[in-house]
Specification:
Blueprint lengths: L1 E3 L7 E3 L37 H15 L4
Antiparallel strand pairs: 1-2
Length: 70
């Protein structure tokens, strides 16, 4: 199964295992015309969905990189 979580919100889940997206585009609108002007501190792609404990570890790691206290 697959999971996408943005800003520690509710995860969107599904099964992308049988599909091959052929790549990923970050920070663009659906038409591909509106691009993000800023900095992405880190993008992480994992081969499996994480449980709550694993997600918490990743969130703590990313918060530490950004200097954000949780």
């Amino acid at each position: 199964s697959s999971s996408l979580t943005v800003n520690n919100g509710t995860a969107a889940t599904g099964n992308a295992g049988a599909n091959n997206p052929g790549g990923i585009t970050l920070f663009s609108n659906q038409a591909g015309a509106g691009y993000f002007q800023g900095t992405c501190l880190e993008y992480i792609d994992f081969p499996t969905a994480h449980d709550a404990s694993q997600r918490a570890r990743v969130i703590r790691y990313l918060a530490g990189l950004a200097g954000v206290s949780l």
